[in-house]
Design brief:
Elements (H helix, E strand, L loop, with lengths): L6 H53 L10 H5 L5 E8 L2 E7 L20 E5 L2 E10 L2 E10 L1 H36 L1 H11 L18 H49 L5 H29 L10 E4 H18 L3 E5 L5 E4 L1 H17 L6 E9 L2 E8 L6 H4 L11 H7 L5 H11 L3 E7 L3 E7 L2
Parallel strand pairs: 7-9
Antiparallel strand pairs: 1-2, 1-5, 3-4, 4-5, 6-8, 9-10, 10-12, 11-12
Helix pairs in contact: 1-3, 5-6, 7-8, 8-11
């Protein structure tokens, strides 16, 4: 039940509970303070009067001659006074006012000499003093009623019981107003967020300029919307690129097959069509394989890294690509091979090295060379692959690591590339905490550097 309540309702309930607790605590404290202070004042007054009577007794030779007129002197009502002589077997009253019968006299033997002691009997409070004067032992008693105090406390209790709910009611209404006013910006945010859909992710929440929590929340939400917009744009572009990349070989296969089936042909012609179809299928298979690799790239980060020797891997990849380089009339040269170790994923490093060297061979002109160098830069492992190929314009250089990006689509199609090679290398280097550096000049060549952490 409680979990289903809104935050505003919870805050209101918290406020009511806290205010009620504070008011009850304040009322109880006020009541007890008044009770204790009033009782203390009564005791102080009774003590003063008892000592005053004692002084009067000390000034008279005959105890019976004193006048118990302290009630008028101190304007203290009701006040009851009694002076008794302590005799064998009990007390003998010497002088007294209308002392209440229900107030029992204190046992003199239980009282210390010349010290005032207080006691309570029914609704009366009594102060008693045992003294010795002129060879006699006397007991001086004064008493007053609690009725006035009780009436005052009762009136206070009724007043608190009446005013506390009223204060609580107004405090609750004020708290509700403040909570509603404070949550108004949140309601506005919710309304605006409800209007943001996939087709208008460019919308942003307004900032009030107050630099408070609402503005901080708006900034964070705007940041999320920006990332979502960028992600949607990438997904949209990615989907379009995939459609285009898959449509081209499929269209080529369909056209060749339709033309072939229009009339009977020789066996050799059928074989050529089938070989062409296999090439297109190989292109599609490469695209699908690379897309699967990119989609699973984040999962590779959870695997434990191992110690990998780059020189051996580099020699293996160069041997694999040596035949292809010879077929294209490109000299593949490996330099600086030695024992250089990095921590990473051997299978992924092989893919990165293969893609970089393969790209350099594909885009190199016949009769040129591709140089592969292993070394260190600033204590970090470094692989550099340089070619003397067509090069890349500066305007394209920052984009060639994006999926499906091509500088020259017609040339890329001719070379058999899918536009995913450098995107894969970029992902692999990011997983190793390294980076991919590109330097290129149109008509001169390209230098690709893989730098590990």
């Amino acid at each position: 039940m409680y979990k289903t309540l809104s935050i505003k309702t919870r805050l209101l309930l918290y406020g009511i509970a806290i205010q009620a607790g504070v008011l009850l605590l304040f009322g109880y404290s006020l009541y007890k303070t008044l009770e204790l202070s009033s009782k203390e004042r009564l005791q102080t007054s009774l003590k003063v009067i008892v000592l005053d009577i004692y002084d009067d007794l000390a000034e008279h030779t005959q105890i019976e001659d004193i006048e118990l007129d302290e009630e008028g002197e101190y304007e203290f009502t009701p006040l009851f006074m009694r002076v008794s002589r302590v005799v064998e077997g009990g007390l003998q009253t010497v002088k007294a006012t209308a002392f209440p019968e229900e107030v029992a006299s204190v046992e003199p033997s239980k009282l210390p000499l010349r010290k005032v002691r207080f006691s309570q009997s029914g609704s009366y409070i009594t102060a008693a003093l045992r003294v010795r004067l002129a060879g006699e032992e006397l007991l001086i008693e004064t008493a007053t009623s609690y009725k006035l105090l009780n009436d005052t406390l009762k009136n206070l209790f009724y007043s608190l019981a009446f005013i506390t709910p009223i204060i609580l009611l107004f405090a609750t209404l004020g708290a509700k107003f403040l909570i509603r006013r404070s949550f108004a910006p949140v309601r506005e945010l919710i309304t605006r967020l409800r209007g943001i859909e996939a087709n208008n992710l460019s919308s942003r929440l307004p900032l009030r300029g107050s630099e408070d929590e609402i503005d901080a929340l708006s900034k964070e939400i705007n940041g999320v919307l920006t990332r979502l917009e960028e992600a949607f744009e990438r997904v949209s572009q990615f989907s379009g690129d995939i459609s285009h990349e898959l449509k081209t070989p499929l269209t080529a296969m369909r056209s060749e097959l339709e033309i072939t089936l229009r009339k009977p042909r020789q066996r050799q012609e059928y074989e050529e069509v089938m070989r062409s179809a296999l090439e297109e299928i190989g292109t599609i298979e490469e695209i699908v394989h690379n897309l699967l690799f990119l989609s699973r790239a984040k999962l590779q980060r959870n695997l434990p890294k191992e110690r990998v020797e780059l020189g051996t891997l580099l020699s293996q990849q160069c041997r694999l690509l040596q035949d292809q380089a010879q077929q294209r009339g490109v000299a593949l040269r490996l330099r600086g091979v030695g024992e250089v170790f990095v921590r990473g994923y051997e299978r992924l490093i092989k893919i990165a090295l293969y893609n970089v060297i393969h790209n350099a061979i594909l885009y190199s002109d016949r009769g040129t060379a591709v140089a592969v160098t292993l070394g260190k830069r600033g204590g970090r492992a470094c692989v550099t692959v340089s070619d003397e190929g067509v090069g890349i314009d500066a305007e394209h250089l920052a984009h060639v690591t994006k999926s499906f990006y091509r500088v020259d689509r017609s040339r890329t199609r001719h070379t058999g590339g899918s536009g995913l090679g450098l995107a894969i290398v970029q992902k692999i280097m990011e997983q190793h905490g390294g980076k991919l550096e590109l330097e290129s000049q149109k008509g001169v060549g390209t230098v690709v550097t893989l730098l590990w952490e």
